[in-house]
Amino acid sequence: MSNSAVAVPAAKPRPQHAPLTQFEVAGDELLVGGMPLTRLAARVGQTPFYVYSRAAMTARVQELRRHLPPEIHLHYAMKANPMPAVVQHMAGLVDGLDIASGGELAVALDTPMSPDFISFAGPGKSDSDLTRAIAAGVTLNLESEGEMERAAIIGRQLGVVPRVAVRVNPDFELKSSGMKMGGGPKQFGVDAERVPEMLARIGELKLDFQGFHIFSGSQNLKVAALQEAHEKTFALAIRLAAHAPTPLKTLNIGGGFGIPYFPGEERLDLAAVGANLKAMLPDVLPQLPGVEIVIELGRYLVGEAGLYVCRVVDRKVSRGQVYLVTDGGLHHHLSASGNFGQVIRKNYPVVIGNRVRGTERETVSVVGPLCTPLDLLADQMELARADVGDLVAVYQSGAYGLSASPSGFLSHPNAVEVLV
Ligand SMILES: *Cc1c(COP(=O)(O)O)cnc(C)c1O
Prior knowledge:
Layout: E1 24-26, E2 29-32, E3 35-36, H1 37-44, E4 49-52, H2 54-67, E5 72-77, H3 84-91, E6 96-99, H4 102-109, E7 118-120, H5 127-136, E8 139-142, H6 145-158, E9 163-169, E10 179-180, E11 190-191, H7 195-204, E12 208-213, E13 217-218, H8 223-241, E14 250-252, H9 270-284, E15 292-297, H10 299-302, E16 306-318, E17 321-326, H11 334-337, E18 350-352, E19 361-367, E20 376-384, E21 391-394, E22 416-419
Parallel strand pairs: 4-22, 5-6, 5-15, 6-7, 7-8, 8-9, 9-11, 9-12, 12-14, 14-15, 17-19
Antiparallel strand pairs: 1-2, 2-3, 4-16, 10-13, 16-17, 16-21, 18-21, 19-20
The structure holds pyridoxal-5'-phosphate (PLP).
Protein name: Pyridoxal-dependent decarboxylase, exosortase A system-associated
Active site: 371
InterPro entries: Ala_racemase/Decarboxylase_C (IPR009006), DCO2ase_PEP1 (IPR017530), De-COase2_C (IPR022643), De-COase2_CS (IPR022657), De-COase2_N (IPR022644), Orn/DAP/Arg_de-COase (IPR000183), Orn_de-COase (IPR002433), PLP-binding_barrel (IPR029066)
């Protein structure tokens, strides 16, 4: 057999990042909040920084309102981005805030959002957390029977009837999720099979029962998986509602809508998710009369609205491979480095912010200043040719960025955050 007869398999096309259009490009430079990135860096006064765009967040909420049935209430899960200015902006757009710590409670209470539409989830609420939340009048998403008993005692001491919902650990999980938070044994919520007994106790304790919180997972891009989770969530809620001391006022069905981070990931088909929910509601709502259905979203609301920007401080070549060494890295942006729960490290979308397309291209690795090989922002990625002083911009950085990173590690200067 001659060599020419051997079939050479066609090279598989490399998976690409989903197209990102949230920031305009003018003169080959990113425009953020109407300002070229280099000028924005001068305005901020330092690199590295995070920049979040009000316009992008507003547009995302409008898109959700367009596609979700009008009966669905939209909450912002603050842990995705707790910057007070961001939370203020979101509070004017959404119907409620979901918090998961005493610190987040304080930020949420500084916004105009009524405590009636603030709910507090999270295992391990201390007596101090419970006291503050009950005094504020926010809803406690109870994570255990023990928490329920402590809340009842604190409520009696304060002379305030605690508003409570039960966080249910469902008997199913959200399939193909980046992070599973329900199904099987979990530290979150109360196992569905124990909830009827707990509801009876809520009646005895005369707590102000609001409803259920059923959150089954996060970072999901699959319409079918979300549809299945929503169907099972409604069925579970209807089943448990039969044991409730009073009719459900709210049913928080979680969220889990994902955004495309990595090559090959496709944007969630929001229109299809909305259409599926619309089809379910005529069956669900009559079985839960008067209920308000809530979807709580974090990264889907803010993740695409943010960039992380750092500056190239050195350019070096090691055995043929180009390294751009920047002043930013995993100490500010653990998730982009691949160390925030990812199993296999993949590149976030990264560009040279002041040479987005760039006529000259090269394959480089972008690293940070930390003395650890984990400090990697882009691994062998094709970018415009960059030099010392150029700006590296990491997309999809509006959620789980600075507040989810070990900023003390290696004692480099902190990043700042701006909202434009
Ligand atoms: C983290 C969290 C969210 C937000 O998740 P996203 O993936 O950012 O949308 C929502 N609800 C609960 C209970 C959470 O713990």
